[in-house]
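Submission sheet (multi-component)
Chains listed below:
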Amino acid sequence: MRPGCAIRLPLLPHFSQSLGQIIQQGSRINLLRLADDSASTAAFMREYWRINSAVLADKSGSTAARLCARGCAGCYTREEKNEKKESFCKERRGFAAGRRGGRFRQSRMVSYICGKVNMFDMENKSLVSIDQYGRDDLIRILDNAARFERNPNRCLLEGKIAATLFFEPSTRTRLSFETAVLRLGGRVIGFQDAATTSSSKGESLKDTIRMVSNYADLIVMRHYLEGAARYASEITEAPVINAGDGANQHPSQTLLDLYSIRKTQGGRLEDITIAVVGDLKYGRTVHSLVAGMSHFRPRFLFVSPDELRMPDEQKHFCDGLGISYEEQTDFTAEVINCCDIIYMTRVQRERFTDMEEYERVKNVYVLRSDMLSGCKPNLHILHPLPRVTEIAHSVDDCPQAYYFEQARNGLFTRQAIICEVLGINHLI
Amino acid sequence: MESKKEVAAIENGTTIDHIPPKQLFKVAHLLELERIENSTVIIGNNFSSRKMGRKGMIKIDGRHFSESEISRIALVAPDAVLNRIEGYKVRHKYRVRDFLPDRISGLVRCNNPRCITNNEPMDTQFFVIDKEKCQLRCCYCERKIGQDDLIII
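Outcome: structure written.
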């Protein structure tokens, strides 16, 4: 099947058979158009979850169905679906008795289905948030990154242009994305200072993105406003990679963190104890790390001052998935000696509105080399960088220090991400 | 029951009862009642109620509301009850909360000043993550908003 083409399949029961055949033939379906009864759709989406996105075009073409068009893989299990169906029927009997007919039932069911899936752009495969990737997606990207580590110079992007739009300063992320594109044989345009662009004259982000998408095949964007990457992905056909949107998401950092964890732990991601230390309140990398690791039964030790504790939202997320975690305010030898990974973070001055609070907490945890004397043999120290004072320079020479290699891994991971969003995985 | 004595009954139309008094005029505004020209509209506030102490009520003669119109008021008055009146009798009774959609577009402002929706000329988008508590999550910055913090545009 031609990559990227849309297929139309017959109605049930031939539907599942045809779809199964296509998947068995090894074709990857990016867009699936369903014209069936929506009650069975959840099961199909679940069963054939390799499908990236699906369009549910019910006969009435209701709004809810169109909303669901933006849904993606990873929806309800069969049991959850039945439960929803039951509560839906109860509700309908109670409050919507006057409304009959398939259209209403269908649209409500569809909206239940799309309630759980993360909405993201249907046409392209933009990477906006780490949540949009399931366990198998993550492993696939990490495997591809390992291939790039063995052979980073590959001409997969020949003739393609990537735009790197950095509305906020960055060193590692921008350089590694640009290096990734260049090593893949592509070319780079872009800017690293919004003050030199038309946005300083008041141009909206929408106009900037629309304009840039005329020139580039891929957009890598960092922006100081939260949600900017998702918005950009909605207004352009070109895939957008989120290289950080304010304090919200930084998915490529999470993927390189996962890659580094797997590499330092002998190829294993499951059952790892991670101490996350420092600014857990504002640190977007730690929030995304929790989400990214959630597929691999981790155990977390959250070490932070009271002012910078892990937000309830992340803790509820762990509770919901049965992920064990402990909260501590002391960065003690017991913490260091029981974990496989120490993930240090910088207290970010730019996220504070109260400078007094920043001064109070900025040097609260400092990791020194003598603190590592009783650690596990497989312990490694990660840090998203830049580091300020939280890791003493004496640690750099310890075998446990891995943060500079971690930054190097960013190159391979970003090469894999670029291939993922452009849908050229099969060429790697 | 007491309040019904104070307000005239309507033959065919819609009654919205049990509106919190503070939200009554917001509900009237969201339903764009000021645009209704040829039907009788009765807006009453601070009726005594056994359930809520004081309550507001709106009656519109000869007019029924669509699901999307009702969903607009579900955020400000989720506990209100909507009655469909036919021949002076309550034909159907709905809880407004049940019309809360899974996704809300352009009706609520995100209360995160650093959210893209507050800095670009665009519509806001929210997922309704808890219908009972009226809790929303911004589709863009992922900030959660509780019912008490809702800012209607």
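Remark: The two ends of chain A are 19 Å apart (CA to CA).
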